[in-house]
Write a structure and sequence with these properties.
The complex is a heterodimer. Chain A is mostly beta strands. Chain A contains no helices and 11 strands. In chain A, strands 2, 4, 5, 6, 9, 10 and 11 form a 7-stranded mixed beta sheet that branches. In chain A, strands 1-3-8-7 form a 4-stranded antiparallel beta sheet, with no helix packed on it. The radius of gyration of chain A is 13 Å and the shape is globular. Chain B is mainly β. Chain B has strands at 3-5, 10-14, 19-21, 24-26, 31-38, 44-50, 56-58, 64-68, 73-78, 87-95, 104-105, 109-114. In chain B, the strands form 3 sheets. In chain B, strands 2, 5, 6, 10, 11 and 12 form a 6-stranded mixed beta sheet that branches. The N and C termini of chain B lie far apart (41 Å). The relative contact order of chain B is 0.34. The chains are: A mainly beta, B mainly beta. Chain A binds chain B through residues 4, 31, 33, 35, 40-45, 48, 56, 58-59, 90, 92, 97-100, 102-108, and chain B through 4, 32, 34, 36, 41-46, 49, 51, 90, 92, 94-96, 98, 100-103, 105-108.
Chain lengths: 114, 115
């Protein structure tokens, strides 16, 4: 089944403890992206990647890192999480970087930073 | 700056009645427009998109959307609502001139269909 898989789905942790949210897609997609969803704000892009080894900042990159060493994986790293990073996170992918391609989303990761 | 507005936090409609979820946008160039739906504890699912051509776009689950360039709107519609349509709906836009292919989302509209 074609899908975007995120892990973990839920995580409660404490301020300053490094964490990684993994994202993997099995559709051979070029383009991948991370969003955070907050009530009343919709989804905001954190980072995106046009292809392997190519990443760039979105609208809200502060406090996050990403890497794209393989086409299928795009992990989101919080080096020193803070409470304002408590949110619902989504990874998404699309076949290439053409702007009219819809994105396929994972089921989300709910992070709570205490 | 690119933006998307969904003026209604919630839309309530009776099953069998037509529904409309509103969306207006602002971009520098020409837009690519999308509607996504989110069910509880799930990611967003693509419903339909407008690229160019006919202003009325048909998508999944009987939904359609009408692109109106003069009003910069892209309202989502369905002739006859189902209880199972109850979900959170997001409108999104990409500016054709934006090399980052950034997707800008509205704040979402919760659709509640009463039996």
């Amino acid at each position: 089944e074609a899908q975007v898989t995120q892990n973990p789905r839920y995580l409660i942790t404490v301020t300053g403890k490094k964490l990684t949210v993994t994202c993997s897609q099995n559709m051979n997609h070029e383009y991948m992206s991370w969003y955070r969803q907050d009530p009343g704000l919709g989804l905001r892009q954190i980072y995106y990647s046009m292809n392997v080894e190519v990443t760039d900042k979105g609208d809200v990159p502060e406090g996050y890192k990403v890497s794209r060493k393989e086409k299928r994986n795009f992990p989101l790293i919080l080096e020193s999480p803070s409470p304002n990073q408590t949110s619902l996170y989504f990874c998404a992918s699309s076949p290439d970087d053409r702007a009219h391609q819809p994105q396929h989303f994972g089921d989300g990761t709910r992070l709570s930073i205490l | 700056a690119q933006s998307v507005a969904q003026p209604e936090d919630q839309v309530n409609v009776a099953e069998g009645n037509p529904l409309t979820v509103k969306c207006t946008y602002s971009v520098s160039g020409n837009p690519y427009l999308f509607w996504y739906v989110q069910y509880p504890n799930r990611g967003l699912q693509f419903l339909l998109k407008y690229i160019t051509g006919d202003n009325l776009v048909k998508g999944s689950y009987g939904f359609e959307a009408e692109f109106n360039k003069s009003q910069t709107s892209f309202h989502l519609k369905k002739p006859s609502a189902l209880v199972s349509d109850s979900a959170l709906y997001f409108c999104a836009v990409r500016d054709m001139m934006d090399s980052s292919y950034k997707l800008i989302f509205g704040s979402g509209t919760r659709l509640l269909v009463r039996p």
